[in-house]
Amino acid sequence: MDNNVERRVKKICVVGLGYIGLPTASMLANHGYNVVGVDVDRDRVRSIEEGNLNIVEPGLKTLVSGAINSGNLRVKTTPEDADAYIICVPTPVKWEDNAPRCDLSYIYSAIESIKPHLRDGNLIIIESTVPPKTTESIYRYLNNSRKIYMAYCPERVLPGKILKELVENDRIIGGVNRESAELAKEIYSSFVDGNIYLTDSTTAEMVKLMENTYRDVNIALANEFAKICEEINVNVWEAIDLANRHPRVNILNPGPGVGGHCISVDPWFIVEVSKNAKLIRSARELNDSMPYYVCNLLCKELKRRKIEDPKVAIFGVAYKGNVEDTRESPGKKVIKYLISKGISVSIYDPYVKTFEYPLESLKDCVKNADVILVITDHEDFKNFKEDEVREIYYLMRNKIVIDTRNVLNQDLWRNVGFYVKLLGDGKCKL
Ligand SMILES: NC(=O)c1ccc[n+]([C@@H]2O[C@H](COP(=O)([O-])OP(=O)(O)OC[C@H]3O[C@@H](n4cnc5c(N)ncnc54)[C@H](O)[C@@H]3O)[C@@H](O)[C@H]2O)c1
After folding, report:
1. Is 262 designated active site?
2. What is the pLDDT of residues 153-172, one digit of tens each?
3. Which residue of the set 13, 262, 295, 365 is catalytic?
4. 102 catalytic per annotation
């Protein structure tokens, strides 16, 4: 934005200071806005004030401390009067009578908390992912009493690259009317280098859901290919790599399932609003079934080798490589299932700090284990050195590895003496 143009919005209240809200609030503060960050979680507010972030994201600590030290970012547990409000609270999926529903309770409680502060001319932006028409219906609810502006501005950042992508990615801004979209654009242009496209709020909501659904369906296709390749003795990884040499083909990777707060959740919001979402539903179901498919592979291997009282070393519980986020992680489902079958489990994840099951050091995790089950494609797993692999070999009881992400240096592990089984590799026999 041209810095000489007077900003209509000067004070912004960002509601929800998680993976999305905190970087956004800090970015705005560092670009001259007077920002109040609000989170109902007192511990989170305190830890932000003290500079002890519980979110691991490159550059975030510096960005947040810069924003707080400049005096432009204050954090607290309740909202206050502002010119604009940006809502970044969770929107999980919940199930009612076997049907998926977006749990909008966090959104509505955020809206209720800012309602007493709303004045004519205020702008509300929703960044949380929501089903189509949500923004419009909140606007109708609020605009009865006030003349407000409202927009939906989906967040499309990649965890691990949030700060870079916040600035560089193109943005979609969906206004309930043209004035709302223009006013929201004024705010985002202060820090976004990418293009900003304006549309209506329902289209913007659908765009966000389509982006994540596209990835979910593509991964489901890869997972289906993996199962088929197991059956017909083909290595799916090699087949996908070769298929992707076609100039118009881009198949994603198979794996133990899809996790995280977005791809494994958002497609359900389309299923919620339309009976036509048949492919989307079945892709979601297929991806949700992958942890059990992987457990089945593992159990077959244990049975084939007649391993009694097995111990399985799980490598990685983050939902994807190089992040500490375990939300909706396939690892959780795998662990729960194996424990329910009486199989002893130990867990190693060099990125994750807290988890609902105990985490162990690498050595403790593999000590007397029979199988290593690789669930997450962390860089650390890719880069094991030969002496480390040898040490793991001597610590284990049986020397079996099942790699669901094709992340290990298989030649190295095999040379050391491991039997390595790859998800979707029908060719890989003992
Ligand atoms: N994490 C991502 O990579 C990502 C990417 C794109 C979109 N999104 C969407 O953004 C939204 C937020 O996701 P997130 O990952 O930042 O979630 P998060 O759980 O990390 O953070 C949400 C924060 O909101 C707080 N909160 C809940 N209710 C509140 C209320 N009424 N008032 C104030 N604070 C409240 C929580 O305490 C929490 O700190 C979700 O809808 C998500 O789907 C997330």
Report:
1. yes
2. 999 998 889 999 999 999 99
3. 262
4. no
